[in-house]
Amino acid sequence: MPDPVPPVPTAAAAGTTVLGGDLRVARLGFGALRILGRGGLGPPRDRARALGVLRRAVDLGITLIDTADSYGPGVSEELIAEALHPYPAGLVIATKAGFIRPGGAWVARGRPAHLREALEGSLRRLRLERIDLYQLHTVDPKVPIEESVGTLAEMQAQGKIRHIGVSNVSVEELRRAQAVARIVSVQNEYSLAERESDDVVDVCAREGLAFLPWAPLAAARRGGKTLAANLAKVALKRAATPAQVALAWLLRRSPAVLPIPGTGSPEHLEENVAAAGLRLSDEEYETLARL
To answer: First-to-last CA distance in the chain?
Structure first.
């Protein structure tokens, strides 16, 4: 008889966390920027492949998909709706507003009028009446964060937003946002190679907020030689890839952390999801953490 085929790992192996007290999601999500064209602009080169990746993500147990109105712009949200609407029970679609993309640049735009218009556009493209997690994508230096987040709170009171999150913020900016609305999540750049938000992670852990690291695989791509060597060493020992080890480190970093690696490749998607079942030893975790 042939050897039995091992089960395909799913995101459920990472465990779960609860967003806002009422949305239970797997601790490994999917970021929907890389399903697009170069630089996150325009449609994907292979639309069917992009739609297939989104559907496969859900098949693999991912229950949080993160996007933004600036991804495309608008294209990522449209693809998500085309691939997955009507959305399966338990799937959380998180989106963001606060950037515009003139000429491909990332330009902050946090004025209330822009945020209101952005929300309506996201609701329309995603085919939703309410967005489960709506995030301020960045702090506009020309607009106090209290004003931007206050606008989201107004739209939440109108029933168009379930929970509010913030992105690319310091602890001080998080505190200012919390003064005007209930914040349930923070999304900052964070990885083994980028640790500036260590203090934000710790605040989220203490206060029951989810922390969604963007660019979670940066360590596997641009870490220094020592980090790359240690990732490779652990990966070889565990019959894993350096990217999987980098994700496993993030999952071990804190129960608050919910990585959202993105890809346009079904093979890379399955590789990323398989990291959900990888448990680092204390020695492995500490060795990598010191770098």
So the answer is: 47
Overall pTM > 0.90: yes
Of 71, 87, 134, 190, which one is the catalytic site residue? 71
Which residue type occupies 192?
Answer: L
| Dist CA 288 CA 284 (whole Å) | 6
Q: Is residue 64 in a domain? A: yes
270 vs 255: CA distance, rounded Å? 22
Mark residue 179 as left, alpha or beta (left: phi above 0; alpha: psi -120 to 50; beta: remaining).
alpha
How far is CA 263 from each of CA 84, 190, 277, 279, rounded to the nearest angstrom? 17, 17, 19, 23
Question: Do you know the residue count of the chain?
Answer: 291
Q: Is 78 among the domain residues? A: yes
134 is catalytic: no
Domain that holds residue 137: 21-187
Look at the chain and report how many structural domains it folds into. Answer: 1
The confidence score (pLDDT) of residue 221 equals 63
Q: Is 194 inside a domain boundary?
A: no
Higher pLDDT, 43 or 222: 43
User: Tokens 């071990």 — which residue?
Assistant: 252
With beta carbons less than 8 A apart as the criterion, state whether 54 and 35 touch. yes
Query: 55: domain CATH number?
Result: 3.20.20.100
Other Cβ atoms within 10 Å of 13 Cβ, number = 18
CA 169 – CA 147 distance, rounded (Å): 15
Q: Does 176 reside within a domain?
A: yes
What is the rounded CA–CA span in Å between residue 144 and residue 208? 25
Share of the chain above pLDDT 70, in %: 95
